[in-house]
Amino acid sequence: MRAAVGGHEVLAIARHADPERLSGHQAGISFLAADITQEGKLLEVATHWRPDVVIHCAAPGVLRSAMLPEETLRGANVAMAAEVARAVNGTRAAVVWIGSCFEYAPSDAPVDEAWPIEPRSPYGLAKEAGLRAFERLARDEISRLTLRPFHLYGPGEDRRRLVPTALLAPNGQAHNSFGDPELIRDLVFVDDAAGGVVIAAQALAEGAVASRRTFNLSSGVAVSVGEVARAAAGVAGVPGFAFDFTGKPPLASYDPPYLVGDPGLIRRTLGWTAGTSLLAGLARTRAAIEGAA
Fold first, then answer.
1. Which class for 84: exposed (0-12), middle (13-18), buried (19 or more C-beta within 10 A)?
2. Phi and psi angles of residue 9, each rounded to the nearest 5 degrees, phi first
3. N or C: which end of the chain has fewer CB within 10 A?
4. Mind listing the pLDDT tens digit for each residue in 53-81?
């Protein structure tokens, strides 16, 4: 099937491309199960499909990254970068590279795209290593831009992460242990982020944005872990639930006290904003969790 999403044909590639796992989000998307670290596999797929844009967001996530040896984590990101470069060098497709806010140096104020790249966590270091490898291997004429998402949440999210846990804990469906309630994050609903990726890909393909730009996918709204948890309790129907914020281990360098992005550049350049409010996003996430139960 080659269906259109917003007028675009989309092929989603994953090791286990299971449409059931993406229930509610798969309309108009073709799926392919493939290991893109396998030498030449992505080039084979790209040669057949001839994409205008490759959106590279494949990498071990934050939770899985914490369970992998640093060398394995970095090696996986670099290997995938090499295969993306091989594929686009062979097909001349443009690239939207999905980085991470964890690549930035620590800050106590919202960071813009000019903020230094000084990752402190194995995850951030691996993401940055992957991008450097791609930049080294991709031909100069390949159009590319980088998006750095902040704290994504929404339907389909791993239930061990903050938002699903906060929605489930008040009804006894998840552990009640949330660490430091004063950690400040920048939450972006997943559908908003996906819209930003599509806008960026279209602009790059049409030449409406210069190559080699970087944009934050951020809301610019600072919210504490405690505020998120209390809002989630209200959405879950248990306002006033007593969350346990006492079991926090010593603050690790990869869990910064403040991590918020400045979305001004992407708003001015591409017209994108994270338009879903926290309460609306929490409600939609809860509905998705209940629908999957």
1. buried
2. -80, 135
3. C
4. 999 987 776 666 667 788 888 998 999 99
